[in-house]
Amino acid sequence: MTDFDMNVTMGEGVRRLPVYLLLDCSGSMGGAPIESVKRGVELFISEVAGDTYARQTVHVGVITFASEAALVTKGLVPFDAFTMPTLSASGTTALGGALRLLRQSLDSDLRKSVPGGEKGDWKPLVFVLTDGAPTDAWQEPRQDLLSRQSGKVINMITVGCGTGINEEQIKAIAIGPTFRMDATESSFKTFFQWVSQSVKAVSKAVSQPDAGQAPSAMPQPDPAVIQYVP
Amino acid sequence: MKPVRGSSPAETGMALGDRPLSMAGDTHPDWLAAHGQVGAWSIVAASAVGQMHLRDQTPRDDAFSVRAIGPWLAVAVADGAGSMRRSRYGAAFAVDTLTERLLCAVYDAAPADDPGPTGPGPDGPTPPSGPGLLSRLVQSLPARTKVIDGPSVVGFDEVALREPRVEASACWASVAWRRPDAPAQPAALDMVAPSLSAAVRSAFGSTRAELEGYVSRLGVPLRDIHCTLMCVLLDTRTGAFAAGHIGDGLIAALHPGFGARPAVEPPSTGNVGETYLITQDGWERYLAVTESSPAEAEGISTLYLMSDGVADDCSHPPPPGVFDRWARDIDREVRSSAGAGTSAVRLVRWLANYELPGSWDDRTLVVLAKVGE
User: Fold this and answer.
1) What CATH code is assigned to B9-116+180-370?
2) pLDDT confidence of residue B166
3) Whether ipTM exceeds 0.85
């Protein structure tokens, strides 16, 4: 140590940016759509891996929902430890179950700020991708999430894909901005590119002005592919 | 670090830190260190451009200002919004203005050319003078104050700050002294505002108004100079202080017996990188102000003001209790140097060089340490 070095205890942890992907794996996603989702997740991994800043802060949680919902990452995992989950399409659309698992993970996996002490995680980014109407009870788990949302604890973006989407219903389910797109491979690719860009942009946002409901650093999706549902 | 003798509180008047950026252009440095002493309190301050700014070849957006009149010490730190091209203009102007307004709120200034009833005059004390005075002051400078050597961070390498000789030619500085026994502030030094916290609130309001005038002169909208803002107003005679804060970063106090804790906790948006700003609409809603109780003031040994680039690096365990350990370590390191000047150079070197995952923002830290007279 030289005269000008300093011996100071530093935090080994980082302020994490939790990113949840809620992916519809119901039977209607079978075939080309689920293959596109797989390629999309791979794209997400490769895009974020190329960004030093995002890699250091992003922690990923993947919840799939078909007849049952599952937190396939078993919690939030550091991006560098995140691997491609096994995805297959079958069964019904337990979106309510997925929202319930999201709530449980938010309660158990998020680090909360301690008044007068350590800071907690950043507000999570949640992306929901579904191609149809839920087949289970979603109202109560949604209400549970809304009660958290009243404290602005998450940023959730819902995207309905394909022709089976009922815009009114998806708006009723969603918490936060809602979008729609078709179910072509190029649309899925655009969606996951947008997710990746959002995560990268938000992870290195520096002192942005308060933007209200959504992180101000988030880019808008390509409106030619992903349209906002007002 | 030993206290500097011969600088009794009533004789001190100084201004340190970032200068406001004028219409003439950008003079905001990438690295800045400053030090001083007011009464029993030593000031060690430093600010270093963040690694992301170095990579993107963008300026440092943080700014700090330290200003003292008599026993009153005003310190401010601001973080310009990284998304705004001229935010450093706002940060530098805001800290300079806020420290000025804080001191305006606590003393009833006499005209600058009025020596006042106790100042030197026909019947007053004879000030020291003559060619030997300045040389004696120069000799009293910390002998071991060197410039930064052998840094590892890319930015220092880029500007070739590798040897003291090169570094000395690559930096610029003002070095100031006051006559050690010349009473500089004969005016009344009593509180004008009803309380310290009222002074802080009033100074924030004045600063916001001045920022509006500043952008008008610059010919840019207020959003172009978006910045956070925090301050401490300290009575160095008693240790009583008030803290005001809007946006991210942290003001904390260390009590050797009870540990380190935030002195004030302003609202937070919770979103990555998003923060509340002195320059936004409805800024008053997000301003938090606290005032120390006499008991708190008695026991506090050290105060810290830091931008989020530092605060985020010392607030996330493991290890458990990381913030308290960090605060005690900083306190020990700042006090361990031969003088505040050496501490300031060590601090800026450390801020510029330490590496942590997820840490790439500007880093600014001002430490106020009670060292005794």
Assistant:
1) 3.60.40.10
2) 58
3) no
